[in-house]
Amino acid sequence: MRYKLNDKMSTIARAIITEFFCAQLEILQNTLVITKNFDCKFTRYVPDPKKIGDGGANEYQKPVIEVRNGAILSNCIIGALKGYKAADGVHCEGSCTLKNVWHEKVGEDAVTFLGTFCFDHFSIKKETEKNFNYIIEGGGAQNSNGKVIQFNGAGTAKINNFYIKDCTYGIASCGNCAQQFTRRIEVTNLKVENLKAGQFIVAVNSDFNDIAILKNIHIIGKSAKKVFPCKIFNGVKGNGNFKLIKMGADEKHCKYNKNDIKYN
Question: Does domain 4-17+31-53+61-263 have CATH number 2.30.30.30?
């Protein structure tokens, strides 16, 4: 089976995500907040490391871009100054769509899904919202010492036609968030290149009834055969230690067919 979508995506990725892409540059002193539909027109947004974060190992750095509930972000490049990484990437505060968003130098994370509450203007109270939908269509991320996508909130994440290169981990359901939810992760037409050996494309929590569905995953690079499509953990609430219980498909929490995973 040929991976026409992924092959095309890889070509686009190399064209866009390299330093040779001639994009308009904007250095951000503060997080860019998106409340509606916003087309970056391939502007390269770079965070001031002293104001937003240097992309190092420090937790709780600010995002470069914050996408509010229901907004759409498209055609963006998240970059970083020389010697730094891109702080905490993009935060989705609720349901969001990220179309063709590229991350040159992933910092803490490339994307974080955070939807946990919706605001009821009639009763003036916050209510837990478990129906958030986070959509990533196209785009890619590279050069990460950590995770590419961190799923902390509630709801369903759908990732399609995405490209990951030279990163440590893929997509993770939070294993030790203070507030935990049942999360669903659907990944289709993903191309992964040079992920760290022994690590995962998707990680889920069995005790919180997470579900991951993987289709048409293409793993390439020297580490390819040592990368796990899925790891299943027992998560915890708070700052405890989550425990690995299984690697691979189990037909309940991590679902994929053998033919959906292709190597090199």
Answer: no
